[in-house]
């Protein structure tokens, strides 16, 4: 009797009813997972901290140190994020957090959260952020830390505000300045998509601000996403679906998506000023920018300067960040170029192997 199994017959066997039900059940589980990641928030910004100062909507947090006092750096670090996003991306999730990483290296860490402007804040300008908020934050950092010197890390528009402050108040104790993807130069040679849009004579930010008051976060977010529409509206979700059974990948996606969805408005006056005085007229680089009647002179910026540039940044193209090195009056300055995008260089998979260690090593030498 021939008992040889016909492999081809087995391979082509018709699925049973139970096989179909099992596959259907697995597919539905994947759909439920996908929907849950889209509609729920991950736990982010979990590193323990204490509130030490407030002004209007702004809050200053101090992170609880995690190393003995004898191992801590002497110079505290103040982190300043953009005014139209939450700063939680600096502390995305346990095990992948710049805050957590720097605490482990012994830094005394402070974070400025600008908060979400209300209708009553529509007249807030960069003048207010650079010359009202930051000087008061700096005084609190000094008194709380007991150190007369401090370092500052500014990211995106936080880097622009930090640059204004560093140039206008060079003698307030700022020892080290780290700029991340800083939008500073809007000359003809640096035109990216945002610059081309905003420099058009048909684009009038004054009318937009007058009609809306504060600029909705959804409007700013949509503009950024339209720079790479396929990637942002299709590719991101395709990647989630393809990795739906990979816990590490879905956890990372869920955390980032939670931060991305938490968008806040931008004050109307700051929006007008950003488009008119920076994008259209490039006043900072031309040396014609005045803040509260004070001339902003980049040559007066004398803190040690680390300029971190994302090579694949489509929000702030590298050319918009490069020229500050030539303009700054610092004796100690360095450019660090990183492969990655506007957010990815600090929150992507390679950040803890590339960007974070370089920032920490540069800062460690200047924080004793």
From TrEMBL:
Gene3D superfamilies: alpha/beta hydrolase. Residues 101-346 form the AB hydrolase-1 domain. Keywords: Hydrolase. The keyword Hydrolase applies. InterPro entries: AB_hydrolase_1 (IPR000073), AB_hydrolase_fold (IPR029058), PHA/PHB_synthase (IPR051321). It comes from Aeoliella straminimaris. Signal peptide: none annotated. It comes from the Bacteria. This is Alpha/beta fold hydrolase. GO terms for molecular function: hydrolase activity.
């Amino acid at each position: 009797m021939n008992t040889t199994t016909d492999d081809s017959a087995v391979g082509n066997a018709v699925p049973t009813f139970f096989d179909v039900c099992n596959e259907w059940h697995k597919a539905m589980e994947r759909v439920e997972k996908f929907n849950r990641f889209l509609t729920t928030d991950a736990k982010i910004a979990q590193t323990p901290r204490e509130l030490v100062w407030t002004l209007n909507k702004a809050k200053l947090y101090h992170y609880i140190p995690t190393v003995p006092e004898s191992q801590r750096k002497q110079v505290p670090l103040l982190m300043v994020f953009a005014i139209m996003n939450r700063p939680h991306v600096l502390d995305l999730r346990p095990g992948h957090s710049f805050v957590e990483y720097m605490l482990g290296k012994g830094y005394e860490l402070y974070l400025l959260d600008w908060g979400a402007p209300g209708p009553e804040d529509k007249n807030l300008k960069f003048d207010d952020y650079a010359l009202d908020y930051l000087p008061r934050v700096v005084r609190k950092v000094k008194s709380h830390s007991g150190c007369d010197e401090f370092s500052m890390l500014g990211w995106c528009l936080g880097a622009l505000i930090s640059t204004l402050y560093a140039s206008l108040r060079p003698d307030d104790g700022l020892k080290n300045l780290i700029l991340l993807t800083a939008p500073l130069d809007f000359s003809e040679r640096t035109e990216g998509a945002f610059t081309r849009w905003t420099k058009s004579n048909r684009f009038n930010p004054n009318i937009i601000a007058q009609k809306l008051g504060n600029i909705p976060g959804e409007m700013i977010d949509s503009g950024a996403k339209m720079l790479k529409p396929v990637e942002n509206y299709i590719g991101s979700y395709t990647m989630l679906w393809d990795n739906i059974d990979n816990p590490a990948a879905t956890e990372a996606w869920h955390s980032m998506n939670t931060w991305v969805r938490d968008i806040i408005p931008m004050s109307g006056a700051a929006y007008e000023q950003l488009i008119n005085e920076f994008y259209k007229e490039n006043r900072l680089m031309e040396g014609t920018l005045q803040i509260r009647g004070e001339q902003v002179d980049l040559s007066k910026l004398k803190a040690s300067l680390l300029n971190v540039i994302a090579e694949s940044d489509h929000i702030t193209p590298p050319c918009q960040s490069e020229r500050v090195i030539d303009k700054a009056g610092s004796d100690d300055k360095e450019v660090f170029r990183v492969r990655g995008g506007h957010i990815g260089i600090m929150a992507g998979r390679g950040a803890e192997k590339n960007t974070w260690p370089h920032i920490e090593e540069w800062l460690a030498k200047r924080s004793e």
